[in-house]
Amino acid sequence: xxxxxxxxxxRERRPAGEQSARQTKPWWHWTKRLLKxxxxxxxxxxxxxxxxxxxxxxxxxxxxxxxxxxxLAAAGLAAASHLLYACFDLMGKHLTGHRLxxxxxxxxxxxxxxxxxxxxxxxxxxxxxxxxxxxFGLDSTVITRIAANSMLTNWSGYxxxxxxxxxxxxxxxxxxWKLDSGGLxxxxxxxxxxxxxxxxxxxxxxxxxxxxxxxxxxLPPWRLAVVQLLVSSANWLLxxxxxxxxxxxxxxxxxxxxxxxxxxxxxxxxxxxxxxxVLEAVFIALLSQQLGRNxxxxxxxxxxxxxxxxxxxxxCVVYFVTEARTxxxxxx
Length: 332
Prior knowledge:
The chain is mainly alpha-helical. Helices cover 78% and strands 2% of the residues. It has 2 domains: 18-53; 58-328, no CATH class. The chain has helices at residues 3-13, 16-24, 26-53, 56-65, 68-85, 88-96, 102-119, 122-135, 140-168, 181-204, 222-246, 253-270, 278-287, 293-328, and strands spanning 209-212, 215-218. A hairpin with a 2-residue loop joins strand 1 (209-212) and strand 2. The radius of gyration is 23 Å and the shape is globular.
């Protein structure tokens, strides 16, 4: 039987209710198209807005001052960080037992992370995961567990690394922040305690399934929780190493780690997509006494390009290729 004949017979076997629903609800088809157009417009606006904020003369000066090997090394660290983050959902695959290939999972995670960085967790971390994983046949319960596990991985490692940084080498904070070094040490100790408590909870809790703000969370085995801490901490260190290289090693690495982690939580608190302006404000507030404002901005602009914008452009390509392939396979 020919392929066209198979298709015709499948159409004939479809329930009449399904065909009727498709005929009576053309609005949904156009709604999906409109949402895609709005989504593309939002990405274009973000890219345009970030491009307008760049001071090109300072970028050019910063590039001229840096050697090609240094820029390649920075790009390598950015790629390594995105590759490592792409492994986060592999732990979710292990936890849920779904059968998607590892390369498919890593591709989805990469796309979600790039959109998460630039458009926020609601779009990148949640909506994009549901969209892509559902295209490959996973149900909402499994997707929720994968997304929750990925967020736990990211922030458990953050708690551990930031806690150690604030505890051992507290930053000299501006007076208006109303928190001295002693207070920051206490915050660091509390964060380390929270990270260790998470591992202990995974090891000894009898109740493995929890609900947080309507989202189901399944505690992983304690060994997997330890892996989460280590992998996430390594990812934050790679990001810090990228900034350290772009600052031309003029500020010591532990300080860069602490400042980047402070800027990350500030961006989450303010709910600004991509932390636009927040990252720069925190670095200038904490490091302007050690390095000139122009050099800081130049390094951060390069950081935004290498870690945010370049991966976003690649993620858009991967996303549309994935959409096209799943449509050919008969996806939603």
